[in-house]
Amino acid sequence: MRIVQVTAFGGPEVLVVNRSPEPVAGAGQVVVGVSVVDVLSLETQLRTGWGTEFFGQSPPYVPGGGVGGRVVSVGEGVDSGWAGRDVIAMTGDGGYAERAVVPVEALVPVPDGLGVREATALLQIGPAALSLAGAAEVKAGERVLVTAAAGGLGTLLVQLAHAAGAHVIATARGGRKLGLARELGAGTVVDHSEPGWPERVREAAGGAGADVVFDGAGGRIGQDAFGLVASGGRFFTYGVPGGSFARIDPEEAGRRGVSVRGMEQVQFVPEEGRRLAGLALAEAAAGRIRPVIGQTFPLGRTADAQRLSEEGHLLGKIVITVP
Question: Considering the domain boundaries, does residue 39 fall inside one?
């Protein structure tokens, strides 16, 4: 079968299509015939060699932390009823392949009324969005700022905050992204690549600042966004597209009464991740949220998919499709 390997740390060109033997399900495992692979911006950073002290990747390795497809075989001790079912699953690594071995307890069934492509796009951002929105406890009439609002996770947070009755202020770069945020429910959109954007956000928030800030941008944008939290507000920082998390002064947060939560809010033990993924799929099947898939690439063009992810011009999510 075909796989895509990171052959060395570096640019997208280090992603190479190779071949590997067909996997066999062991006890408690299934083999998923992969039809869709989720693409995360984190994977592009890990490919460069960033974060090795935390994540431990060493080339050559097969990236891909989440897949969707159909169960083609089951191992010893696995209910045969899983065979032929459409599922999504976290794989850790190894998802950039035509088939993937997955522990049966990692499987999340795709509900009727939802495609595998859309379900896979929600596999990682769906639980993150529900966790963040739940922790924020957004109330009707509150002012909610979402940075990087046209990204995969940002688009869901805009929808969830809007559904809760908040006035959503969305920041992104460029007219297409801002237009998408407005379409999804943002009442105010601000281009955070333009000088003076924090002042425009503060004005939209009534001068006092936002009650809740979801920072998916990180870096300097995230630091500026922290300054826009109203006294007693809630600040969530989880994004690193800018190359680093937003640097937050804990003393300042304490003086202003701002609660700060970080990556722990979007990292889950497996059982919780599966529970939240199931809830996200149910919400999508019912039409209450929708993942935005900006572009798809075939497995052989994985390098192009990661290159586009790094460039930051895409709306929503990128997924890889496997014939």
Answer: yes
Q: What is the pLDDT of residue 124?
A: 93
Q: Is there a domain that residue 274 lies in?
A: no
* CA 292 to mean position of chain CA atoms: 11
* pTM of the entire predicted model: 0.94
Say yes or no: 160 and 222 in one domain: yes
pLDDT at 175 exceeding the cut of 90: yes
Residue at 246: amino acid letter: A
Structure tokens belonging to residue 13:
């060109």
DSSP 8-state assignment for residue 219: H
Residue carrying the six token digits 């941008």: 217
Cα dist. 196→147, 191, 202, 224 in Å? 15, 10, 10, 10
Q: Please say whether the dihedral angle defined by the alpha carbons of residues 267, 270, 276 and 280, taken in this order, is positive or negative.
A: positive
Count of domains observed in the chain:
2
Which residues, other chains included, contact 27 with Cβ-Cβ below 8 Å and sequence gap of 6+? 75, 76, 77
Q: Report the alpha-carbon distance of residue 15 to residue 3 in Å, rounded.
A: 10
Amino acid code (one letter) for 186: A
Q: Are 4 and 271 in contact (CB under 8 A)?
A: no
**How far apart are the C-alpha atoms of 153 and 138, rounded to whole Å?**
16
Answer yes or no: are the C-beta atoms of 153 and 318 closer than 8 Å: no
Question: What pLDDT score was predicted for residue 245?
Answer: 75
What is the pLDDT, as a whole number, of residue 242? Answer: 57
Residue-range definition of the domain harbouring residue 156? 125-266
Which is it for strands 167-172 and 107-109: parallel, antiparallel or unpaired? unpaired
Structure tokens at 236: 């969530």
